Amino acid sequence: MSEQMPPDPVRSPFSRRSLLRAGGGLAATTALLGTGAVFAGPASAAMPVSQRFDLTKPSYDEFRSKILHESHHVMQGFAFDNQNVRIFIVNARNGGTGDDLCVTQVNFSGEIQGSMHLNNAGHGVSIGVEPVGADSYIWMECDSDGPTGDGRGTALARFKFVNGGTPSVKKFLTGSDTITCATDPVNKRIAVRRKEGGKMFISVYPLASAAAGDFSAPLAHFAQPALADGPVTFQGYTIYGQYLYTLDGTGHENPADINSYVTCIDMNTGKVKSRALTKAGESLVFREPEGLGIYRSLAGETRLYLGFGSRSSMGNINRYANLFYKNVLID
Question: Start and end of every P68 RBP/TagC-like beta-propeller domain (predicted)?
Fold first, then answer.
């Protein structure tokens, strides 16, 4: 599943939710929202200068054609616990309402290590992970705005991953519109993506501040720029250093129809830095781009991971998870 986005959303800024959020108007000052804040004023950023990934370089396989705990739905977002060397992938539950999600823990061979369910959560475009000692805390959307596959989260959930357990959820930024998140495990930051006044904005916070419920001082806050000249199908994002990376494109039967792009955005300017077509996993059956994530290997190599869903054949109900990565950083 995917999220269709025009380059400059035309949804009215005076939707019912935005009016409630801004107290009846779109003020350029801070408006409190749940346990955090909305900043509807000019873009701002204070991200330390960093290297960025060269999106033109080849991608390498991590694993291919792995079934998750929920076998009939395509993978969505994923994230890494760098400290405990874990991967978490989210997708919809078999037989669920469409917004019931499952988080599957896998190892670097793609083998299932455990799973948890969070019902009426949303779509799972992107998730984050926060290591706390030997535990992994999942960050993801919750409180879906509708019990279907079109449902999107209205708050962020944080809970400890316990295989087979029921999440003990702490909620943040309640009352949001189409909210998701992504984590930078190297620099320990979290990015929050949501609609403000009908347009997608990105806000970045220290992960420790977010875990404490403090969303008052974002390191960056800017409107997501147009990713192309026309509409794109948004499929995920992540952050590393001063850069935001996005993935867009659609599923296809013919490798000649590949239209999956990775875009690098400088969060200090809010502008696109680079954009490149990716053919990672081009031989997969019905290859569909699904999610981005950052991981630093035990050997110290920083990687940008790209997720793709696939099938064994067009008629097979099972869906498979596939991960690839890029590892060339440039100034």
Answer: 74-323
pLDDT digits (tens, 9 = 90+) for 72-94: 999 999 999 999 999 999 999 99
Q: Which pTM value belongs to this model?
A: 0.89
Residues with Cβ within 8 Å of 124's Cβ and at least 6 positions away in sequence, in order, are 76, 77, 90, 91, 92, 101, 140, 141
Q: Which residues contact 163 (CB under 8 A, 6 or more apart)?
A: 105, 113, 114, 115, 116
**Smallest Cα–Cα separation from 219: which of 31, 45, 41, 37?**
45
Coarse DSSP helix, strand, coil percentages of the chain, rounded to the nearest 5 percent: 5, 45, 50
CA 80 to chain centre: 12
Dist. CA 105–CA 103, nearest whole Å: 7
Q: Domain map of the chain by residue range?
A: 49-330
